[in-house]
Amino acid sequence: MNIVNRYTGAVIFSAEAESMGKLVAMAFLSEADLSGADLSVANLSGANLFVADLSVADLSGADLSRAYLAGADLSGADLSGADLSEVNLLGANLFGANLSGANLSRADLSGANLSRANLSEADLSGAYLSRANLSGANLYEANLFEANLFEAVLTNAIGYCK
Q: What torsion, rounded to 10 degrees, do the Cα atoms 27, 89, 112, 85 define?
């Protein structure tokens, strides 16, 4: 299995499929440039992706549970159906990201930019969204049960929540 930049076709990382999950799950990819990478269904559980550039990356169906993504750039990324439970996205940029159907339960999104993000049917139960920017976000059928929205910006956000 290869991690490939979907725009240039350049191979960023290569490994046998059975070892890929083990290698990537423990990866230290702090400050890595993975913009445009195809990481769909990858196991990045617990990975350190501090201030990594994952803009317009395909992370659909990926396991990012308990990953450290503080300050990361995920603008325009596809995170649909991804497991982001207990992830640290403190101050991350998720502008225009697709998080539809993603599991963000107990995630820390404090100070994150989620403006124009698609959070339809996302599970944000128990998530920390204090001071997050959700302006223009799609929250259709999102689960915000026990989420902390202290000083969150919800200007022009659309949808209704469960």
A: 130
